[in-house]
Amino acid sequence: MSVKVACVVKERCEIGEGPVWEEKEGTLLFVDISGQKIHRWNPATNQKETVATEKFVGCAVPRRSGGYVIGEGRSFGALDWESKSISTIAVIDEDKPNNRFNDGKVDPAGRLFAGTMAIEERPTVLELKQGSLFSLNKDHIVVKHFNQVDISNGLDWSLDHKTFYYIDSLTYTVEAFNYDINTGSISNRRMVYKMDEGEGIPDGMCIDADGRLWVACYSGGRVIQIDPQTGVRLQTVKLPVDKTTSCCFGGRDYSDLYVTSACKGMDEADMAKQPQAGCVFRITGLGAKGIPANSFTG
């Protein structure tokens, strides 16, 4: 089966991010960070629902009790989709008013991990070392794991839940930590992959059912599959847009890879060359499958 790339959500996001496949509804949830929108798209009907946010929205994840938990501005919030209402759960980085949440994901125990960064002056231009990585527990207590982050980005967990994978984009690396699923604590930080020349900036990522990582490469126009055990790149899939931002597996058997992208900062000439920038793509024929997303338990 050959690899195919199709543009499936044709309405552009400024900065599409954080795709999550919702198995029960058969829908793809994703955000437009600077467009300040949370989208839910149904591939069966091609219908898209949207909730607007007041501030930049870095991530949105399903909540086991219903609705979603989001990282909006410098707050963890609860979103009721039906009423489109957002209530604050916790505020972080109170000493850094220019910060915002970026990517986030739920661990296998139901905690939400999400990191921050300074608000960009223009794409990838920002005050450095302002971000941190946080987790939100089910009792709504916030834990700060470390700081000195440039752009907190992709994150996921190994299939045995003993390793946490993480990307701080401007380090151009994918890192790993030992992970304690019982406490949510991380330790023993180490590099598992260094981006090659021309691959772009590592952004969002996900893990497949074989324990391999898929990394969207911003300014690289591609998604790469890497083996975190060996640090070897196994596969590269090129896309028709440069600013690929994140990815997740979905579809009936989790064999479709959905990829978000961005168009913010592009001028008319750039857009003429890449008219699908900011759209969502579906890659099929990869020979890989994903695993269901976790839901926040609090």
TrEMBL record:
Gene Ontology CC: cytoplasm
Cofactor remark: Binds 1 divalent metal cation per subunit.
Locations listed in the record: Cytoplasm
Reaction equations catalysed: D-glucono-1,5-lactone + H2O = D-gluconate + H(+)
Binding site for a divalent metal cation: 17, 153, 203
Listed cofactors: Ca(2+); Mg(2+); Mn(2+); Zn(2+)
InterPro entries: 6-blade_b-propeller_TolB-like (IPR011042), Regucalcin (IPR008367), SGL (IPR013658), SMP-30 (IPR005511)
Gene Ontology terms describing biological process: L-ascorbic acid biosynthetic process
EC number: 3.1.1.17
Name assigned to this protein: Regucalcin
Organism: Oncorhynchus kisutch (Coho salmon)
